[in-house]
Predict the 3D structure of the following.
Amino acid sequence: MKPKTKPGHRDKRASRTVRATASAATATGSFPIIGIGTSAGGLEALEHFLRHVPETGGMAFVIVQHLDPTRKGIMPELLQRTTGMKVIQVKDRTPVLPDCVYVIPPNKDMSILHGVLHLLEPASPRGLRLPIDFFLRSLAQDRQEHSIAVILSGMGSDGTLGLRAIKEKGGVVLVQDPATAKFDGMPRSAIDSGLADIVAPVDDLPERILGYLQRTPVGHTTEMVLGDKTRSALDKAIILLRTHTGHDFSLYKKNTFYRRIERRMGIHQINKIADYVRYLQENSQELDLLFKELLIGVTSFFRDPAGWEELRKKILPGLIAKLPDGHVLRAWVAGCSTGEEAYSLAMVFKEVMDKLKSRKKITLQVFATDLDKDAIDKARAGVYPENICADVPPAHMSRFFVKDEHGCRVTSEIRKLVTFATQSLIMDPPFTKLDFLSCRNLLIYLTPEMQKKLMPLFHYSLSPGGVLFLGSAETIGTFTDLFTPLNNKLRIFQRLQSPPRAEPIEFPSSFAPARPDGTGPLRPAKPNVSLQALADQLVLENFAPPAVLVNDKGNILYVSGRTGKYLEPAAGKANWNIFAMAREGLRYEVSNAFHKALEQKNPVAVQGLKVETNGGKQSVDITVQQLDQPEALRGLVMIVFTDVATPVEPPAWPRAAKAGKNPGHNAGREELARKYQQARQEAQTIREEMQTSQEGSSPEINLSPCL
């Protein structure tokens, strides 16, 4: 429930609160430090901004602007006419004090360490410099969850990568409304990246900062002891999220979960968590925003460079050397966000293979997954802002990226190595038979209990000798019998061939409502059988085309008619998943049509497929449609199989030597057939891996109609 205070009436009250907090925190240097990034049109925006900042608000502002390196900076003199705060051009080792404005000098990069500003010579040539990103990243490291960043008018995308670091640490991002900016490139880049917490006209941004600080003062403890009422409110928020998104956040660390909620409360200026829970109940859009907030969708190319250098020089060459000729190196990047980690792995693999000049044909298949569908869509597009050059080596930029009107696009050579999919590490089955598994900076947000469940699961997913790559703050814990360090400092481990453990591996599974007595999942009661129901069943089995009803994961919920010609149980553990059960000749086509139907929301028909049966081949048409009606079946998918007459096989194409007329045409046809077969094999490899990923699951479904 948002407080209804008229704009402009909050400034004095909020500034008094912030000033009181700041006066007590100044001695420890924990007053608010706001980093401001701007370029073209920045002077006008800065003047508007500073006019609305209280002179004694207890805050400090550090301005980073693109400046002409050949001219003397006069920005401090210009801004001093606008504000009563002291405006200072930064010199090396300038300490930051409250109620002051600091301006970067020309031809310098600037960083902050323990509240002291340091100047550095620019490492990049003119035209490639990203001083805003450089400073905001250091601000995120220095101020952690107390970091605040503001993006004002400017061209280009400088600042976007710095905002990612701010968000990762739990800081807050404010962006000038592009409609009010003289140049909207930088504000739009920040907004399009999904990093902006508050978007407002420049005149309103100071008030929004004051309101946020009033609710979330700098200097409060990060490790909190949560009371019963707070925990109860958090549980209610988890229930609302689970109902709205289908994802369960009860296994996230409570303090992390609370800090993320506290940030949202500060943005909306809501003081009580109970009021925020009520606000969640009344606003589904806020549930979406909180969901995004909890996903921690922050990453970058070659994050933690030392780890990637180790992979490049030692780990991947050693792994590849042990693989047989023709092997497909299978890798899984769990929690891939917008794809930078997965593409980094593909680029390093290409680089290593080029240097090895091995005669062995080793190919790479990366499965990259994340809970955030929007992030996965961006990853599939493979388009990133030009300022990624701060993280990507120049040689990789020139080889693996092409520039277009949207930014820097990953080349098809790299994109085809990576398959992206939405997946919950906690709730969905894992990928298996892996040679490499990267799960970085995700485990730290999960409870210790969940981390203990995931380590045996990672061991199960990896083949013997496979490599596990964790984040800089993550470890294997007590599971030294499952993994041995290849480089403990860089968090790179190798899977051991361990004896079977006494404790069974707990495989993730979808949420199923518990029984009232807590003994297990509920199952639907069997309906009473009537004469009409039996007659309907007879008609469906003998006269209607066979069909199956599945959920959005492909798990079969209901079978109509005789489907044995098209589906068969997979070997091993019972698995009622359409992708695992589809017979040879249907697997890839069913999967492709299934995903198209989910995306397009329209029926998808595929004709003339040939399914292998015990007596030969049968031509089949399939229709896949996501259901909208009735309400009880909304979101489920119906797949219908229809037998058709097998067409007469055309005569074989005459050999070039016999025809003697157009050998070039025949060669082209053979090459086309070869490429088509290769594409089919690659698609089949992906499908088999997805099938394998289902083997650990045991979806709670009513199988009685299937039997």
User: Anything to note?
Assistant: The chain has four domains: 11-215, 228-294, 305-495, 531-649+666-706. DSSP finds 22 helices and 25 strands in the chain. The two ends are 51 Å apart (CA to CA).
